[in-house]
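Hi everyone, sorry if this is the wrong subforum. Our group has a chain we'd like a structural model of before ordering constructs, and none of us has done structure prediction before. Sequence below.
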Amino acid sequence: MADPRVDAIALPVAPSAPDETDLQPRAGTADAAARYGLDLAEAAERGRLTGAAGEAYTLQLPRPIGRGADLPWAGLPSRVVLVGVGSGTPDELRRAGAALARATRGLDRVVTSIGSEGGPGAPRAVRALVEGYLLAAYATPTSATVAPATAARQRPAQELVLLGRHGARVATALEEAVRDATATWLVRDLANTPSSTKNPAWLADQAARLAKQAGLAVQVRGPRELAAEGFGGILAVGSGSASTPRLVTVDYTPSGDAPARGRRHVVVVGKGITYDTGGLSIKPREAMVPMKTDMAGAAVALATVLGAAAAGSQHRVTAVLPLAENHFGGSSYRPGDVLRMYGGRTVEIANTDAEGRLVLADALAWADAELDPDVLIDVATLTGAASLGLGRQHAALYSADSRVVAALEAAAQESGEAVWHMPLVEDYQPAVRSNVADLRHVPIDGSQFGGGSITAALFLREFVGRRVWAHLDIAGPARSASDKHEVTEGATGYGARLLLRYLAALR
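Answer:
Right subforum, don't worry. Here is the predicted structure as tokens:
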């Protein structure tokens, strides 16, 4: 604490105990308050602190006139940040970390005693704190001309120091937190990139570059290969755009010395619509504004395979990224068209703005036929119905396999990326039947069935064969209109940490 390079010290506080009014100091807070002459009750009143997770209040420490290392205040931090930690659950510590990141922007070195209590819960506590800190420290890449002083104030603190005697398990938890936050940052970076830059070819190049840097196998199919192999859905969706579609496969296989017992092959298919106008079934202007993020599912799939490789996962992981821009033009596909998908099944088109399930159907059918997965997961910003039903914090989870559902729910609990298990309602199956093709990808009259997220999942199920399959509709939590706790405005990166936690626990 006496290091002269310390700009701030962050101290945890909790809500008052029953029948009391004062905040409860947590690890190191009482000692630091006595040392620096802080009145916690007065600070709580001034800052309106309750100790709830996610609160933060900064106190500037007085600097007496004088110089010299012999002065008793030499080396004191210039400020103290009181951070609410609630009852100290992982979710609350994640929020505390996020609050700390935002309260210390522009500083160089921040020291904190949050999470320093030790004990068997220390690894989870430290991991949650650091995840929250790193996730909230994210800054959206910008092309704006920003004054250097402004940019410096907006950047996260250069260094966060965790006090306490931490062993190997905490060190491992720190590595995991950094790895998972890095995966989320990658999803955010890719999804926040403007579509004036991010077309299918660009995104395929980024995936190939990152995969090769990680030593992973990568294959990119362009329009010629897609046509030759019969990917009718991907080609149709991309037909109205000057930017041609791609299909990218990135594969991680554990090293030869990794244990083979219990090894699974998990394939993650991610929707990669680099911009979505709706095609001929054009969207309203307001609905188009966030559509640069409509490839968030593909970014999650890519971040998952890269994260699995960085973690040395014992499981084989393959990411499949069907990439297209859903535009309109003289060659656009139309409502009423019949497409022949990968594998030969035909699909009647009723709405060109339901393009995501078409590129996913091609990719899922190919993965089923060619990759022999033990578990097949798709992730997509698929339907507005999912966000209408579940809001912006939960993804809709569909699967008929109880073990996969339980594993993903457990991963959601650990990661803080919430899911809600939804039913595959068999009575809605007629919604995807057609009189002129094998299937119709959306009901002609949506009001007849409702449940738009459910009927989308029923359509996708037709292309997964007999595989163990889960569908994550992330239309709600993939985007945010504002910063809130560890979530940042714009693309949130939702899904990467969820799937990495799932893989880490898979046996």
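For your construct planning: Residues 65-74 have pLDDT under 50 and may be disordered. DSSP finds 17 helices and 20 strands in the chain.
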